[in-house]
Amino acid sequence: MTTQREDRIGGAEGKLHEFPDEWKEGVYRAIYARRDIRSQFKPDPIAEDVLARILRAAHHAPSVGFMQPWDFILIRDVAIKQKIREDFERATEEAAVKFAPEKEAVYRKLKLEGIREAPINICVTCDRRRFGPVVIGRTSQPVMDLFSSVCAVQNLWLAARAEGLGVGWVSILHPRELRRILALPAEVEPIAYLCVGHVTEFPDRPELESAGWLPRMPLGDVIRLDGWDTPIQNKWEELEAEL
Amino acid sequence: MTTQREDRIGGAEGKLHEFPDEWKEGVYRAIYARRDIRSQFKPDPIAEDVLARILRAAHHAPSVGFMQPWDFILIRDVAIKQKIREDFERATEEAAVKFAPEKEAVYRKLKLEGIREAPINICVTCDRRRFGPVVIGRTSQPVMDLFSSVCAVQNLWLAARAEGLGVGWVSILHPRELRRILALPAEVEPIAYLCVGHVTEFPDRPELESAGWLPRMPLGDVIRLDGWDTPIQNKWEELEAEL
User: Fold this and answer.
1) Using an 8 Å Cβ cutoff, are B50 and B163 in contact?
2) What is the CATH topology of the domain spanning B36-208?
3) Interface of B with A in 10-49 (CB under 8 A)
4) What CATH number should be reported for the domain whose range is A35-200?
5) What is the location of CATH 3.40.109.10 in chain A?
6) Could A28 and B5 be called an inter-chain contact, meaning their C-beta atoms sit closer than 8 Å?
7) pLDDT tens, B193-216?
8) What pTM, to 2 d.p., does this model score?
């Protein structure tokens, strides 16, 4: 396990503020070209050094009180994957009947996981006991450690995209079944169940957008000023004048 | 508000799998050089196009069922910042007495927010009503929409680092006070309160690590194989043989 890349960030180079254009391009490309992969996994194995890099990227996520509450459970065992997949099937069936009839038909046609096709699955967890009961920053918001593990997921996802690996987050699973199958202690929460592997392609758009399930919202519709009651919609010019 | 960069990712270029070295470098640099900023904010204003880019990056986070549950409330009003800061003081006082005496003394010396110094604060929320009650992927895990908003925070944080902007996540706040001060509807959860601005420097290491509060864990200590009970510690060679 090399720490070479990490070491190169320290020292004088750590003082760098705005990144050069090529590095910035990489960050934005990863953000915009990242996809939730379900149908495009290839069986090709993942190189150990690449796997180590994406896990190290995840481990360098922000964490509340620097508690680093995550663990990364790598799942390669076919029998375990099969158990997870069976829980997915049960959870999908329970969910399907909740949709309106016309949405239910579309829902049933969507492929929503690649558990068995992806060479590796990774369960990201949150160990709520880590480093003891009182954590800086978790005192008023007990949910903060769960959020730290989510930040680790997003780091892993973006690093994987840069490495050319697809990631799919499967959330149509029962947490109690994940706990049982992976033998998680009571104080360890399963946060994300990820399928990871090389892909035949990265779709141009999110599949639920392409499928017409929901549209991308305009950015201006989700920005507000100084409180909930002042949406800015597309008034960027006014915002600019005020900044 | 330009969509130029976003458009450049589509089409044939979207088929790119592994990134070229410079882009990869950018992704890993952002991940490793990102810091939680509390003490280093400068009052310099943030350019409108830069602010738009980091918000757009956040808006392109993964979201459960493509529900895009986030809103971004930009806070520039000094009076509102002051109210938030007063809640921080109350929450810090409540927290301080929970630590063991020797930790309490260290805790009280740490600077844990830059609410008033940062030119902009951003509250990232989660609107649990968005696009209706039944959301693909939230049926078995109701918490998934909160996690989507956390992914948006991490995208924003990494894009900000690439742009040379510091971000600090202030979690020593009472959610009920955030709701009141920002007039959030009952179904909208405050997820993250972020301070954003230019900085005098990005510290080489997380401040809680430098201060000796907690150490960075070895990566091998947070990786397990096929279940909780098989930590791999540093057995990467064995893992490689098995992959």
Assistant:
1) yes
2) NADH Oxidase (3.40.109)
3) 10-11, 14-19, 22-34, 36, 45-46, 48
4) 3.40.109.10
5) 35-200
6) yes
7) 999 999 999 999 999 999 999 999
8) 0.93
